[in-house]
Design brief:
It contains 1 helix and 17 strands. By secondary structure, it is mostly beta strands.
């Protein structure tokens, strides 16, 4: 399946074709990788789960290998990459892979897998009313730390989103620091969870904690500033309206900035 719950299993089907005879029994690996290449599932096996090694293949033969994988029970919700490859057991080196025009492929990512954690994230004190973004995403709660900061230092906002429905695009979150005149003086834009959990993979009513770091300019004048957040389509720049407001920006906190 393309979506699975932590602790469940998936099956990856790899279909190989021998281009020439080989004197080496290569083994295949399948990894399911998250942020920083963290593995939540891994399998190394000789082809045919050991019953049909590559030295027995005939040139031109296509052989499909069904490889079961158990997803770690503590894997957090997110989108993971499915990586595959072949390894020479004598040298432990991966066989280089190329595409049809001869360009090297590294790593070899077959697909992306949505993993759902059975644990519901703990949401801090919620907003008085959820804020609706285009009928697709709700903002349930926020935390911002610190509220008093020196110029040049970071501020982190954690946003607790909920999918009102499966979002129709991989929207980008914007976080802006605004001065007293409402002018943007700093910003941090990315897809949720540092680009690792695109919104189109969310399930209906799923709650997604999403931390964003905003680095303040070192020459930022002391004073009071506001943090605003929202969503937009990276391809068009069009924002999702916030509670019907086409500006799409919601102010979530005030920040006091002092000289460094």
């Amino acid at each position: 399946p393309a979506r699975v719950t932590s602790g469940e299993s998936i099956s990856v089907v790899l279909c190989w074709e021998a281009l020439q005879p080989t004197a080496t029994d290569y083994y295949a690996f399948v990894h399911v990788l998250g942020e920083a290449n963290t593995k939540i599932a891994e399998r190394r096996t000789y082809t045919g789960l050991g019953h049909y090694p590559s030295t027995q293949w005939s040139v031109g033969e296509v052989f499909c290998d069904h490889i079961p994988l158990a997803i770690a029970a503590d894997a957090p919700s997110g989108v993971y990459a499915v990586e595959v490859g072949l390894v020479d057991p004598d040298t432990q080196a991966r066989l280089p892979a190329v595409d049809p025009v001869g360009s090297e492929i590294n790593p070899i990512i077959l697909d992306r897998l949505k993993v759902r954690s059975p644990l519901t994230p703990i949401v801090p004190v919620a907003l008085p009313e959820p804020i609706d973004f285009g009928g697709q995403i709700r903002l349930l709660a926020t935390t911002v730390e610190p509220h008093d900061v020196s110029a040049g230092q970071p501020v982190t906002a954690t946003l607790y989103w909920q999918a009102a429905r499966v979002p129709d695009k991989d929207y980008t979150v914007f976080m802006q620091l605004l001065d007293a005149r409402g002018q943007q003086v700093a910003n941090a834009d990315s897809m949720p969870q540092a680009n690792h959990y695109p919104a189109s993979f969310w399930d209906v009513n799923e709650i997604v904690p999403d931390a964003h770091r905003l680095d303040l300019p070192p020459d930022l004048p002391p004073g009071e500033y506001r943090i605003a957040v929202g969503w937009y389509d990276l391809a068009t720049g069009v924002r999702l309206p916030a509670n019907g407001d086409p500006s799409g920006a919601v102010q979530i906190a005030n920040v006091g900035v002092t000289a460094p």
